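In this section we turn from sequence analysis to structure. A common task in structural bioinformatics is to predict how a protein folds when a small molecule is present, because the ligand can shape the pocket around it. The inputs are simple: the amino acid sequence and a SMILES string for the ligand, here coenzyme A. Study the lines below before reading on.
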Amino acid sequence: MNDVFIHPSAHVDSRASVGAGTKIWINVQVREEAVIGVDCVISKDVYIDTGVTIGDRVKIQNGVSVYNGVVIEDDVFVGPHACFTNDRVPRVFNVDWKIAPTLVKKGSSIGASATIVCGNTVGEYAMVAAGSVVTHDVPPFTLVAGNPARSMARIDEAGNKVGEIDHGR
Ligand SMILES: CC(C)(COP(=O)(O)OP(=O)(O)OC[C@H]1O[C@@H](n2cnc3c(N)ncnc32)[C@H](O)[C@@H]1OP(=O)(O)O)[C@@H](O)C(=O)NCCC(=O)NCCS
């Protein structure tokens, strides 16, 4: 793992892969078979579960857990304490539960403390406002907010609003 910074308090499994230029900060855990791309920042207290795939130049802020079944593409921002789920109907005694995959597409941003209910896709360059609960797919280039998250505006690559949305999600 050349050119990778791993803080001494972090634990990165030897079967994980971490791309060049990536920084892994205090108390981070990266599980087996996880793949993290180049030039990422994985901030304090982040948990990256088994088999998770994270693209290049992704920034994940403090306290985020990324569970098995979540794929995060290139250039995604994940705000502090955002929560990804992977079991739609959790029961401690269901031994045959299935992972519902979540896809977070290129260039999108997830606001602080947002919850992404599993089985949904956050579209390219979409933005999920702080504290939102995402229960449906988020269209590309769209700002969503609230619980449940509804479409608020069309946005450009930089996140600027470029149009209104009257109805829908
Ligand atoms: C969604 C966001 C981008 C909107 O910013 P904005 O365009 O400047 O919006 P405004 O502050 O003008 O608010 C517009 C309306 O949306 C509402 N709104 C703003 N943020 C909201 C949120 N997170 N959830 C629900 N509604 C929100 C406002 O209350 C306001 O509603 P009103 O017109 O009824 O008063 C911003 O509020 C946000 O959540 N950014 C993410 C911050 C974050 O998590 N950063 C992570 C790194 S620290």
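Residues 112 and 151 are 17 Å apart (CA to CA). As an exercise, try to locate the residues that line the coenzyme A site and compare them with your own expectations.
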